[in-house]
Every structure is written in structure tokens, then in C-alpha cells.
């Protein structure tokens, strides 16, 4: 009880001190970076580097497989699906390995596999070799991503309990780093493709060589406070943890909504503009919003909302984004001005994402068993990934039914709105979302 009271007081003190902090987004970001521990700075820079290396290659993979390798369209889709499965589907395995062996060895193994996978992909010329390389690349992420995400989440709790500020601010900075990498990576890849696809793959591998070297040098052998679990039974307890599974379901509806940037939105842009060329500008709009406004949004939410209310607001904003397009569809507008509803959808989806993602990641440590944070962070991605897999198939079927124009978008709006009811409730006396 005393420990609980001290945590509550620390959170209140953090919010009070945070309210007087500089309001300039750039100044706030710089101040926050300076206050982070060396380990947190390493992990956040790792996320930036991961995404630069990843997005320098993967956005151009489909075209390479279809043109240079000569794969049929269905096989290209199958290969891309395999990559997603070997990554998202196996996050829970990576999380279990983190709890069993620690962060450092799992991150290093993931980096080695990603280097091998990118080099292999650069030289792959047959379908089976491409499939092998893609599986290795996906499994590499299933190793290092849960390791990095779970440790950032754990360190953010330590940050909050020390009275330095809400844990969501650290997790928001982690999201900013990832989004910045996702923005820079394709630009780097496009420049390298002027040479060839192999050069882009080797450059991506080189990024991970640098990450590997950095972690070999800077990552401690044992992180203070990190407990390694030898006993079995974590998966069984996780499956009985209804509050955590409810969080996974709600988070999965956000990921399903985000996936519509690649499914429903291209269809809408093609209808309005006659091509998918404006998509790149809409994706850039989303990335720029996250990079420049994630921290101010998180600061605002941290001063006013607990984790459940933050996720609720985010999911309702996402639902309203789909509703904007649904309201405009019956008019059948075309041309440049008709892209405004799509832009509104991207903006509302992105702002909703900025509320949902840090809150969801910040919530997991409160719901996870002691010493099994890696397993739970991995399961968050894996369970949500299964929801996206099933939901995306249903969305594709819905879009092909020939229903009235607004209906698919209204259905998609209803999903995140209904997910609000699924979110776990606060426990009495917890003082914060538990």
C-alpha cells in the first residue's frame, strides 16, 4: 500500500513539474533527450536506425519481385504476407526469449539475422531464395523489436516512478524515432535504387552492422532490475489475463484501422484522383505529423487523461476519420479538392495513433506478470497482428461486394468506436490505470 501511494504521489509530482516545462516542441524534445538515461537513448536511437534500414529496402520489394525476379502477382502477395507473419506472428516468441535470456543477446541475434537476410535478399534470384531471405528478415524483427520495446516500456516505468514525468512521454519519443526512420528510410532507398536493388539491400545491411556494433559496445551485459524467468507457465497465465487480452483486442482495432492506409485509402485515392500518385504525399503528411507533434500531443494527454481515456479518445478520433470519408463518398466528388476527405482521414487517424500507441505500450507493464514483460509486449503485437490478418481479409471482401459507397467506411468507423467498450476498466484504488 505504501509503495502504491508513493507511485501515485510521484506521478502527480511529475505532472505538476511537467506543467511548467517549456512549451516549444523542439525545446521540449531536446530537453527530454538530455534527461534520458544512456540506455534509453541507445534504445531510442536503435529504433530510429532499425526503421531507416528496414524502410530503405522493404517499400521497394514488391516491384523488385515482380519486375527483376518475374514473380506472379499472387506469389508477390504471398511473399509479403510471409514476411508479415514471420515478424508479427512470432513477436511472442521473441518476447519469451527476451524474458529467458535477456535483452542484449536477443537484440544481437536479431541484428545478425537482419544483416544476413538483407545480404541474402540482395543476391537472391530465384523464388525459393527470396522466400528464405524474407523469412529471415521477418524473424530478425521478431527478435529485436520485442526486446527493445519491452525494455523501453520498463525503463519508462522507472522514469515515471522516479518522478521525472509520465511514462507516455518516453514512449512517445520512441514512436517519434520510429516514424522519423520510416520517413528517412524510403528517401535513402530511392536514392540507392538509382544504382540497383542490391545496393539498397547492402546499405540496409550496413545500417544493421552499425547497430550491432553499437550494442556490442554500449549495451550492458545485465540491465539492473531486469529479471530473467526460468520457469514455464507464462503463456498459460497470459491467456487467462482477460484485462491484457482486452487491451490487445482494442489495440488490434487500431492496427486494423492503420492498415487501411494500404488497403482502403489507395482505393479511395485511385477513385478520386485517377491514380495513386497522391498516396506518397498523404503518407508523408502522416509521418511529418508524428515527428513534429507526437510529443506535444502526449504532453497534453498526460496532463489531462489517464491511459484508458487516452486510448478512448484516440480510438474515437480514428473512427471519426473513417466517418469523414463515409460522409463524402455519396457525393462522388473527384479531382484534387476531392482528396480533402482522404487527407482528413489521414490526419484524424494519425492523431488517434499518437494517443493510442504510447498509452497502450505504457499500459502493458501494469498488466504483465513480474519478469514477463517481453512475453507480454510480444503478445500485444502477435495477438493484434492476428486481428489485423482476419480484419484485413474481411475488409477486402467488404470493399469488393459492390455495396453503397459509404457502407464500407461506416463499418470501418464502427470497429474502433465499438472497441472503446472492450478497453479494461480501472481497478478500484489503483490510483492510475492498471
Automatic annotation (TrEMBL):
Residues 39-428 form the Major facilitator superfamily (MFS) profile domain. Keywords: Cell membrane, Membrane, Transmembrane, Transmembrane helix, Transport. SUPFAM superfamilies: MFS general substrate transporter. The chain crosses the membrane at residues 39-58, 64-85, 106-124, 130-149, 170-191, 197-218, 244-261, 281-301, 313-332, 338-363, 375-399, 405-423. Its main location: membrane. Signal peptide: none annotated. Gene3D superfamilies: MFS general substrate transporter like domains. InterPro entries: MFS, MFS_dom, MFS_trans_sf, MFS_Transporters. The keyword Transmembrane applies. It is a multi-pass membrane protein. PROSITE patterns: MFS (PS50850). It is found in: Cell membrane. GO terms for cellular component: plasma membrane. GO terms for molecular function: transmembrane transporter activity. PANTHER family: MULTIDRUG RESISTANCE PROTEIN MDTH (PTHR23517:SF2), RESISTANCE PROTEIN MDTM, PUTATIVE-RELATED-RELATED (PTHR23517). This is Membrane protein. It comes from Streptomyces variegatus.
